[in-house]
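Here's a chain:
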Amino acid sequence: MHDVRAVRADPAAFDAAMKRRGLSLPSDSTVQEGTTFGEWIADLDQRIRANMARHQALLSERNELARRIGIAKKSGENSSELERQATSTRELASELEKAIAAQKQKLTELLESLPNALDPEVPDGADESANVVLHQSGQTPQFGFAPKQHFELGEALGLMDFATAAKLAGTRFVVLKGALARLERALGQWMLDLHTREHGYIECSVPLLVNDATLYGTGQLPKFAEDSFRTTDGRWLIPTAEVPMTNFAAQEILPESALPMRLTALSPCFRSEAGSAGRDTRGMLRQHQFYKVELVSVTKPEASAEEHERMTRCAERVLTELGLTWRRVVLSSGDTGFGAAKTYDLEVWLPGQGAWREISSCSNCRDFQARRMNARYKPAEGKGNVFVHTLNGSGVAVGRALIAVMETYQQEDGSVGVPPVLQPLMGVDRIR
């Protein structure tokens, strides 16, 4: 959510921020042609404040008329004209109150539909083709045979079953068996231990169902409702543990000593994958249900940029320890998510696909989510409360890590090596 006062102070700067997002004002019968976002918001805000001042004046006038009516009645004077004026004033105040409520609702709907302003360092570009690779770790592995994709390996091993999953739930689900099920569990447990024991995150077990306010707080509602699954009682399956963990700070005024708050969770995630028809239909890359280790940070504003770097390094370590080839990419203006000011994607090389695929996104949302959640902190020195900054990242997606391990460690005989860091949890060095 954007700060109306900031828009009011500099509508042109706000327009420039939205232009970087590729947005233009939609046609609306109530908006004059050529009006910009900043002008529309500032004008609507001005009309609201003017009407609120007028409403307050009517309330004062109503109170004064009530006082005069009381005096007239006590003195035996005719108060009918004053009562008529009081009735008219009360009706005007009531109508104006409704108009103010409608204007405020319109302003809120407009503000909550607009994405976060981008960091100046975010490269301009229409889509992912403008993303910029910052650095790469490791060389793309070479094989003396034609490498297979993960689903070819898994099905040949008899440990990855899409047919049974489709019978049970439909497409975009999988049943893992035996050593692959154990590898998935080992990956999640190992990542969680790494982030809690060495990176200072607090492990959380969170609700997998949340209410409207929780999904609204992190920006999924109302704009992206179709991307999530809703239950018959009005709750939502979480698309990521970011949603409940970030909302720990919702409606709170945290002491400065509580920051930074660093949280992590291993949880199932549920995505409707709306709009992804025909994309990644084979294998585990794009599923309705998957596991992910999520990282969330809540910080002071001046600390969020460094926290973003720190969080991304924590996710990078996961990939390095697993012996995977990866690279860090900064997303362009056209590829950065709705709530993020700046996002780093970590992409892993998949030999079977012969392609880079995203395995983690780490985003600094600044105060965008905090304003929606009314999440603030009280500085140890100084007056007033300040909106926190929130960050989230994958540390990392377990299913995609499983895919990367399988394709990177595959052997010519169809077996799959187990990364050394996972061997103590697996009890074997190879899946046959």
The chain has two domains: 4-112, 128-431. The mean pLDDT is 95. The radius of gyration is 28 Å. Residues 176 and 242 are 25 Å apart (CA to CA).
